[in-house]
Design a protein that fits this description.
This protein has about 450 residues and is α/β, with parallel strands linked by helices. The protein is built from 19 helices and ten strands.
C-alpha cells in the first residue's frame, strides 16, 4: 500500500487524483464525505467513485455499514476494480482504516492513501492509526512533485454521462401464420426493406437452431442421430434434460430481441431450422399474448445497465431488477430463485418451481433463462453478496426481500427508474418458452442443400 504525503496541501494533487481515475478500466478515486466519521459513509463514497451513487437521492434505499462494505467488495470483484485512491486519509479513523484494510485483503486491490500532514506530529499520528488498523506494509512518498509522479498521468478516452439511447429498426406487424407459410406470407405482404429486416431475423433463428441441434442436442442424446436419419418408428418427445436445454436455447435466442415482432421472426426461423433436421418444435400459436423472453423483456443495452448500476448500489437489488427485465417472468416465480441456481459464470439462471409446489413428486424440467452478457456481472455480484452474508446457504433465496410485499416492490421499481413490462403487463400463465414442446420425427431429414434462398427472385 502507498501513502502519499502532501505536506503543502497542493490542489494539483487532488486534481491529478481525480483525472487519473477511470472506473471503466478499474481505477477509482474516492473522496470521503467531510464532517463524518461513519464507516458506512466511507463505503458509500467508494461506491460513488465506482459510479453507483443512486443512494444520494432523498427517497433511495439506505444501506448500513456491513451491507455497504459487502457491496463495495462484491462490485470490486466482479467489475475488476484493481486500483484505488482515497483522499483525505489524515482524517480517517482507525475503524475506517480497518474497513479499507479488509477491502484490500478481500479483493487484492492496490490501495493508495493521500494525506495532508503539514506537521511531523500529524504524520506520526497517522502512522499510528495505520498500524492499529493492520496496515503496516506502507510505502511512503513525500513532496508534491514525487506525489504527482506516483499518482501517474490522467486517464484518456473517458466517457462522461450515460451511454447514448438505443435504436433498433422496427419491424411491421407480422402475419400470424405457422412456420410452413410464415416466410412466404411476409414476402407477399411486405416491401423490400421490411422483408429484408424480417428475413434477417428469420435467418438468424434458422441458423441458430441448426447450430444448436448439431452442437448440443446430439451430445445430450446420441440416439437423436437416428431421429435425424429417419430410423425412429414414431415421434419421440424430448427427455427432461433435452427439454431444459431447449428452454435455455429459446431464451438465448430471444433475450436480446428488441421487440415482439423480432421475437416472432426468430422463433419461426428456429422452427424451420428444427424441421430441416426432422425435429418438430411446437410453440404457442400467438406469441404476442404470452410472457417470457423476447415478449415481456427489455434488452440489457449499455444505457439500461448504466441506469441499473447507477441507481441501485445494492448488488441484490440491481440483480433483481435486471432479472425482471431479461426473464420477463412473474415476480412470484422469480422469487423462487435460489443462490445456487446461478451458474459460476452468471450466464444461466434456473428456477425449480416443481420442487416448491409438488413436494415429494418426481421433478419436472426447470425454468431456464439465459443471462445477457451485460447482466452477468450483476448476477455474480448478487451471488457473491449473498455468500458473504451471515447464515446464507445455496438453497436460500437469491432475491429475498425484493419482491415480497407491494410497497417493497414499488420502492425497488422507483429506485430503478425503469419500466418493467413483466409488472406492467402481468401474465397468469407459464412463459412461452416453458410451454414449448419438441419431438424427434420419423421422417428423413432434407438434404444438406436445403439452405434458404438469398435473392428476391428466389423468395418463396
Amino acid at each position: 500500500m502507498r501513502l502519499l504525503l502532501d505536506a503543502d496541501d497542493d490542489r494539483a494533487v487532488q486534481r491529478a487524483a481525480y483525472q487519473w481515475a477511470d472506473p471503466g478500466r478499474g481505477r477509482i478515486t474516492a473522496d470521503p464525505t467531510p464532517h463524518t466519521t461513519s464507516p458506512a459513509y466511507l463505503a458509500l463514497d467508494v461506491l460513488r467513485a465506482m459510479g453507483r451513487d443512486g443512494f444520494s437521492r432523498p427517497d433511495a434505499e439506505r444501506m448500513s455499514t456491513d451491507p455497504a462494505w459487502r457491496a463495495v467488495t462484491c462490485w470490486t470483484l466482479v467489475t475488476d476494480v484493481h486500483e484505488g485512491i482515497v483522499l483525505r486519509a489524515h482524517r480517517l479513523t482507525v475503524e475506517r482504516l480497518r474497513r479499507l484494510a479488509a477491502w484490500r485483503a478481500d479483493t487484492g486491490i492496490r490501495l493508495t492513501l493521500i494525506a495532508h500532514t503539514p506537521e511531523l506530529a500529524d504524520e506520526q499520528h497517522l502512522v499510528a492509526r495505520l498500524n492499529d488498523a493492520g496496515l503496516t506494509d506502507v510505502q511512503t512518498v513525500r513532496g508534491t512533485a514525487a506525489v504527482l509522479a506516483a499518482i501517474g498521468p490522467a486517464a484518456t478516452g473517458r466517457r462522461h454521462g450515460p451511454p447514448p439511447h438505443d435504436h433498433a429498426h422496427p419491424l411491421p406487424t407480422l402475419p400470424r401464420s405457422g412456420v410452413a407459410a410464415f416466410r412466404a406470407d411476409c414476402w407477399r405482404r411486405q416491401n423490400d426493406v421490411d422483408f429484408a429486416h424480417t428475413d434477417g431475423q428469420y435467418r438468424a433463428g434458422y441458423a441458430a437452431a441448426r447450430t444448436w441441434l448439431a452442437r448440443t442436442l446430439l451430445l445430450l442424446r446420441p440416439s437423436a442421430a437416428e431421429a435425424a436419419d429417419g430410423h425412429l418408428a414414431e415421434p419421440v418427445a424430448f427427455t427432461l434434460q433435452e427439454t431444459e436445454a431447449l428452454r435455455l436455447f429459446l431464451a438465448r435466442l430471444t433475450v436480446s430481441s428488441p421487440s415482439t415482432q423480432h421475437t416472432v421472426a426468430r422463433v419461426r426461423g428456429a422452427q424451420a431450422g428444427f424441421l430441416s433436421r426432422s425435429v418438430l418444435l411446437d410453440v404457442p400459436d400467438d406469441l404476442t399474448t404470452c410472457a417470457g423472453p423476447g415478449i415481456t423483456t427489455v434488452p440489457l443495452t449499455p444505457r439500461t445497465v448504466h441506469t441499473i448500476t447507477w441507481r441501485l448500489p445494492n448488488p441484490v437489488r440491481a440483480a433483481a431488477v435486471a432479472a425482471l427485465l431479461f426473464t420477463g417472468t412473474a415476480r412470484s416465480l422469480l422469487s423462487m430463485t435460489q443462490v445456487g441456481y446461478v451458474d459460476d459464470r452468471g450466464a444461466t439462471l434456473s428456477i425449480d418451481r416443481d420442487s416448491h409446489i409438488n413436494v415429494g413428486q418426481a421433478p419436472g424440467p426447470r425454468h431456464m433463462y439465459a443471462v445477457p452478457p451485460r447482466a452477468r456481472p450483476l448476477l455474480r455480484a448478487a451471488v457473491e453478496f449473498r455468500s458473504r452474508s451471515p447464515r446464507t446457504a445455496d438453497y436460500h433465496g437469491l432475491f429475498a426481500n425484493c419482491f415480497g410485499t407491494t410497497p417493497r416492490l414499488e420502492a425497488l421499481v422507483a429506485d430503478a427508474g425503469l419500466a418493467i413490462p413483466a409488472l406492467v403487463h402481468p401474465h397468469p400463465g407459464d412463459d412461452w418458452h416453458t410451454t414449448a414442446r419438441c419431438w424427434h420425427l420419423n421422417t428423413p431429414a432434407p438434404p444438406t442443400s436445403d439452405a434458404l434462398p438469398h435473392h428476391r427472385e428466389s423468395r418463396p
